[in-house]
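Moderator note: this is an archived Q&A kept for reference. The question asked for a predicted structure of one protein chain; the sequence and the answer are reproduced below.
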Amino acid sequence: MKTHRLTDLSIRNLKPQADRYELPDPGARGLYVVVHPSGKRSFVVRYRHVGVPRKLTLQAGISLAAARKLAADVGSLPCATSCMGLTHSCPREHLPESGVSSWVCYTS
């Protein structure tokens, strides 16, 4: 199945289903848009740290362009490289200068 590049309009038009689902963005490695049954949409970045899959949930309300930039920067964040599996909030001084106030990291 070929995946089309996501746009802000295509994300707004995603319909909720009975279960939460994720769609990959071919425009940014590891970036997914998550659509919840309530209709809420969010972004996550999936990556591996020491061979273990990780999921980094981006702050709600950011644009697709900001999510793509943050997905590209995920490897350089201290919390992304040091998170060892517990829910972890990134300190403000670790964040890129993009106006995003927090990252939350979960293992999956």
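Archived answer notes: The chain has one domain: 8-107.
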